[in-house]
Amino acid sequence: MPESTTVQPELEAERNYVTTLYARLDELRAEKVEQLTRTRRTGPQGSIQNVSERDSFAALYEDRLAQLNAVEDKLVFGRLDLDDDVNRDGEEAGAPRYIGRIGMTDDELRRLMVDWRAPEAAAFYQATALHRQGVRRRRHLMLRGRTVLGLDDEVLDTDLFSENDTEHLQGEGALMAALTQKRTGRMGDIVGTIQSEQDAIIRSPLAGVLVVQGGPGTGKTAVALHRAAFLLYEHRERLNSAGVLLVGPSNSFMRYIERVLPSLGETGVVMASVGELYPGIIAVPEQNRESARIKGKAFMAKVMAKAVSNRQRLLAEDRRVVVEGTRLVLTRGAVRHAREKARASRKPHNEAREVFTKTLVRELAEQLQQVLEDSAGNGNAVDRSYLVQEVRESRDVRIALNLCWMPMTPQSLLEELYAKEHLLAAAAPQLNSRELAALHRSPGSPWTESDVPLLDEAAELLGDFKAVGNKDGGAEAQLKRDLENAEATLQNVEEMLFNAGIDGLVEAEDLAAMNQETAARQTAAERAVADRNWAYGHVVVDEAQELSPMQWRLLMRRCPLKSFTVVGDIAQTSSASGASSWAQAMKPFVAERFTLEELTVNYRTPMQIAEAATRVAHAAGLTISTPKAVREGQWPPLVDRLAPGELLSKLHEVMPGEVAIADGGLLAVIVPESRLTQVRAAVQGQFGRRVGSGSGGLSQDIVVLGAREAKGLEFDVVVVIEPQEMIDEVEGSVGDLYVAMTRTTQRLRIMAEGEIPAGIDTEE
Ligand SMILES: Nc1ncnc2c1ncn2[C@@H]1O[C@H](COP(=O)(O)OP(=O)(O)OP(=O)(O)O)[C@@H](O)[C@H]1O
């Protein structure tokens, strides 16, 4: 093709079309602003229904406006030229089809651009020369601001390609441009360059459990996020009310990905790190590996159940209680009988307590009646209801009943269990004294991520604390609202179960009890975050290899439909209670009923560095999937072997050079946990406030962090400190080092006074 004569007019034509698209976007925004102002101007008048209708409209316009504002950057990125016989809806034959962040039509409803998630856009990601799907040419439009800077074309309808070419990466120019961009500390979307193996996963059906295994940098996080956006588009009706939950490993990671979904026009996904899954608690990472390991074990569910049942106590001997000056006896037999009855109700502890106390209060009231009638002489009947009241209010009785069956919150139960070793030992006979000691903590210590599933388990077993003696008039109205809400999702539930060929996993009545409507005006997302019993329509889990069986239990509870997208890399497991295979992790919940897909191309790490990481993993005997790296790097991994005591001075010496290579991008120094404070102080001493740490750290261009915190993140340049210590810290597991080495997009430098693990150097 004579480029110079054809490309320029093509570019001009695209620029004109893109100008039209942005003009239309501006028009739509202006329309929404106008509608919103008009609605707000109506003022707070009229019936409650009118007011709430107005609020709903205002919320709707606000959402739409937020979406239109969010898609400004790279509004359009693709174009398909199609065969004439392709079925076209709302398009002229022969007209190109533009693919963008949202669908747009002109004011006569002619289609201007197709949403990337629509079925008509699928060919943009899937068509190959071998399977053209009616596509003659695929074009990537590269924009900066509202200007088209360049085009990247793939012609699919020629015989010019050899067989190998059918395997090439789609939109290679556009892809490489995206991959070589400087990192900003925030993940961006990949909507313009999604590759076909990724697209197939993004568009898979909603129902069931989909597990996506992929080595480092294969786009698992990107795929998980785009899948959430796709599902919300494809199943909006279903998922808008029930919501989608996206779970990630840490707060830094959540901050890293938080802008992707809004840039795809989706603001309704609930995003939470594993420490945030219990409403009202923000848990800190668990520092003690041994206690993380124990707390994550599946048997902890039994331990919690035992801890609760141990708090439903019998009397050692009959006990005297005084009611209004009269002595009564609470017998051991009566308490045993009441406990049996309460347990038989199968209600959670706090709710079953009502059955327990009612039974005993009735028993004591009868005793009291007998005593009073006996002393008053024959035929003098005493008013029973009055006696029941007397018994209930007696301080003695209250103390005795509480001793036997105390209402508890999940926090009070767990706190006491950790603080009092004899209670823990009684609930957990499977733990030895060393393990019991590992779980000890004083009351008031902050909750950790591994406590979260235990609190959740306790909440299930204990039931509503507020229900204890608190039968307010609002309860009935609340129940009615709950049922209405549940009804809306029930229909979807049945449909989904049917589609998935699953039954028996969820009881309709269980669902009816979920999704309590706490406030009429809250969005589904806001309500879901605050409600432990919320039943999500779909859950996406990233870095899922880290989750313990107890964390999985919690998540499965959050989605009784068991509609999950689970992404992760078994080889990167560093958590003491994480998974060693997907089958093992999934078995307790769905047995073999999950689909496993694999991503095979590494888009992040340059080839030489990816190969070094693979060698390290292999040398340590780790079985890993070895994705193909898409690009060669400029540098092989550099290794500095240092003399004892030389580390900090050498780091000081090399840092300016490394920062210069990062050239405005991001540099991370990844260190063993035990050296974090020391190395951070040294780097801060050199670069001052440029150095970030913690979940806000990624807004700085230099960051010092541990491998676990670096999980899921990426940087232009990475300096790894003392790799062998990184392995030793996690009992010889190479997962953390493997993660650290694969965080870079350009350059890796390894510095060690200590041993260099096998495989890092090419010559080994
Ligand atoms: N199709 C694509 N187009 C452009 N960039 C992509 C594509 N796929 C992945 N990337 C980029 O590759 C990098 C790695 O992606 P991502 O973080 O999703 O990988 P990952 O599999 O989750 O990695 P890890 O397990 O190592 O954390 C990101 O910068 C992402 O934007």
From TrEMBL:
Annotated SUPFAM superfamilies: P-loop containing nucleoside triphosphate hydrolases
Q: Which GO terms describe its molecular function?
A: 3'-5' DNA helicase activity; ATP binding; DNA binding; hydrolase activity
Which Gene3D superfamilies does the entry link to? P-loop containing nucleotide triphosphate hydrolases
Matching entries from Pfam families are given as:
AAA_19
Sorted alphabetically, which keywords does the UniProt record give?
ATP-binding, Helicase, Hydrolase, Nucleotide-binding
Q: Where is the UvrD-like helicase ATP-binding domain?
A: 193-606
GO cellular component: a single term: cytosol
| Record bears the keyword Nucleotide-binding | yes
- What's one GO BP annotation on this UniProt entry? recombinational repair
Chain sites annotated for binding ATP = 214-221
Q: What is this protein called?
A: UvrD/REP helicase
Q: Look up and give the organism this protein is from.
A: Paeniglutamicibacter gangotriensis Lz1y
Upper classification of the source organism reads: Bacteria, Bacillati, Actinomycetota, Actinomycetes, Micrococcales
